[in-house]
Amino acid sequence: MIKHLIVFNPHDQATHEDCLAMLAKGKKELSQIPGVVKVSYGVAVAANAKYKYTFEALFENESVIETYKHHPIHVKFADEDFRPMAVDRITTDYEIL
């Protein structure tokens, strides 16, 4: 299994509700991509955390990384919803051992 993990901060005009709505939309849409096992998101517990939000997708295997990256559902969500809001972000894929 592969964990596609993103931690991020939104742009200054985004409200907490805006972020949660965007993340809920991503969970619903990205879960439809073949090979995606689970999509989840969260909010930092500590008020002073460097990154306030997390978004992750669990993939069946490493080959799903490329499928996901170029899938039309992902491309549309990333370009139209996620990237415009999540301006400060780190993305890493991890093999689950």
Overview of this structure, please?
By secondary structure, the protein is of the alpha+beta class. The protein has one domain (2-92): Alpha-Beta Plaits. The protein is 37% helix and 32% strand. The protein contains three helices and four strands; from the N terminus they run βαββααβ. The protein has helices at 16-30, 64-70, 72-85, and strands at residues 2-9, 36-43, 53-59, 88-95. Strands 2-3-1-4 form a four-stranded antiparallel sheet, covered by helices on one side. The longest helix has 15 residues, at 16-30.
Radius of gyration: 13 Å
Which fold name fills CATH's third level, the topology? Alpha-Beta Plaits
Share in β-strands: 25-35%
Helix content: 25-40%
Q: What is the second-level CATH architecture?
A: 2-Layer Sandwich
Point out poorly predicted stretches.
none
Give the overall shape.
globular
Secondary-structure element sequence? EHEEHHE
Helical region count? 3
What spatial order of strands do you see in the largest sheet?
2-3-1-4
What CATH first level would be assigned? Alpha Beta
The biggest beta sheet reads: 4 strands, antiparallel
Distance between the amino and carboxyl termini: 8 Å
Structural class: alpha+beta
Mean pLDDT: 97
Number of strands: 4
